[in-house]
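Two folds, back to back.
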Amino acid sequence: MDLIKEGDDVLLYLDDRKTFLIRVEEGRQLHTHKGYLQLGELIGKPFGSAVKSSLGVTFYALKPLIRDRLAKTVRRTQVMYPKDIGYLLIRTGIGPGKRVIEAGTGSGALTMALAEQVRPDGRVYSFDVNSEFQSIAAANIDRAGLSPYVELVSKDAAEGFDVQGVDAVILDMATPWVIVSNAYDALIGSGVFASFSPTIEQVMKTVSALKTHRFVEIETIELILRKIIVEPNRTRPETLMIGHSGYLTTARKVS
C-alpha cells in the first residue's frame, strides 16, 4: 500500500472545481473556504483517504498525476493543454529511453510531461533564452521529481542545438520556422519534428520551411475538446469550452 509520507505532494480534492496541490509537512495547515486542514494528519494514510477540515467538510488525498502537476504549474507563460500534449506524445512516439529537444521551456509544463515519458533512461534537453522562465521551470520540474531527466539550456534555439542524434524536436515558440534547419540537423533519421502554434500564419511559414528540407508525413491538426455534464435528465455539453488552443504540426526526417 502506498502511504503518504512527510514531504510528499498530495492533491486534496474537494470537488471538480476545487483542488489543492500541497506538500505534506508536520505542523503545517492548509486554510480553505471550507475550513482548515492539519496536513500532518495525512502522514501514514493511504493515498485516496478521506480527511475532514475544521468545519467537518470532506476532502480526499489523491496522489498527483502528471496532469495535476500541469494544471497547478506556477507559470509566467501560456502552457499547452493536456489534450494537445497527449496527442503530441503519441504522434512523436516519445517513450522510455528517448532523447528529446524542446525549444521554448516556458514554465516547464510540457518539459515535465516529456520527462515523465522518457524516464528512467531518456533525456529532455530544454532550450529557452529567458533565464527567468527557466528558473520558474526548474522549480516546477524539481517539485515533480523529474530533474534527473531534464537538462535546461539557457540559449536561443535559433543559434543551433548543442545536442545531436535526438529522437524528436518539439518547438513551442513564436517563430518555429526559423528553427527547422537546426531541428533537421539534430534529429536522427526518421526522427520527428513537432511545433505548436496558436495562429495559422505561423503554421503556414513552418510547413513551408519543412518542405524545403527532407521531411515527410507533414501534418497539421487542431484538437477540440468538449466536456459533457452528466446528470439525470439534463446530460448535455458544457456551456463554456476552450474553443482554440493551437495547431500542432508534425513531420519526419528522411535522408
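---
second:
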Amino acid sequence: MKFCCMKKEISCLVVQRSQVIVKRFVDFLLALILILIASIPILIIVFMVRSTSRGPAIYWSDRVGKNNRIFRMPKFRTMRVDTPLVATHLLQNVESFLTPVGPFLRKTSLDELPQLWSVLKGDMSFVGPRPALFNQDDLIKLRTERGISQLTPGVTGWAQINGRDDLPIPVKVSYDEFYMKHQTFIFDIKIIWRTVFKVIKKEGVAH
C-alpha cells in the first residue's frame, strides 16, 4: 500500500515537472514571436513616452517573483518620475501623477508590452499571479501562507480577468489560489483568450 502511494506521488511529480517544462517552452517561443511582431509599435510607444514627459521610456520596478525572489520588471512609464513608490491604488489624486500618454497606455494595457522581456528571461510567465510590488507586505504574506509564492508570476492571471484593480487583496489571493490548484494548459489558454477581450473592453482598470 505504501509503495503504491509513493509510486503515485512520483508519477504526479513527473507530470507536474513535464507541465512546467512545456509551459516554459511555450512562454519562451511565444514571447520571442510577439517581440518581433510588436517591435515597431514598441518603438512608437518609446517615442510617445519620451517626447511627452521627462524621464526614460521604460520604468523598472522591483517585483516579487517565484519563491519571493525579487526581480526587475519593466513597463512603459505611465507616471511622472517623482511619483511615490507605492501601489497605484494607494496614491491620492492619481491623475496628477500620470503622464500625458499614461492613461491611454494603461487603458489599452500597452504599458505591459515590455514584460515580454521578463517572459523571455523566465522571470515571468504569460499566465500566473500578477507579481506584487516589493513593499506590498500584506499581499506577499498571504500568498506565501497559501503556497502561491511557488508559482512564476504572470503577465495576466485568473485574478486579472476577474476584477484586476477592483479586487481587495484577500479576494485576489483566493483567485490566485484557485489558479494554483487548477492550472492546466487549457486553463491558461482560456485566461489568455478572456484577457484579450478584457483589454479590448478596457475592463478592470481603475486608472
